[in-house]
Specification:
single chain, about 35 residues, mainly beta, two-stranded antiparallel ribbon, 2 strands
Length: about 35
């Protein structure tokens, strides 16, 4: 079996204004009430 490992990056725009009801999720953990 051959395994390939690499590094990458992902870029997303920031919202200009907060969106009501949207939850911040980092590493699969939800942070309700955060921008």
């Amino acid at each position: 079996m051959q395994v390939r490992v690499g590094q990458g990056f992902d870029v997303h725009r920031f919202a200009d204004t907060p969106e009501p009801g949207r939850v911040l999720v980092l590493g699969g953990v939800a942070f309700p009430g955060e921008p």
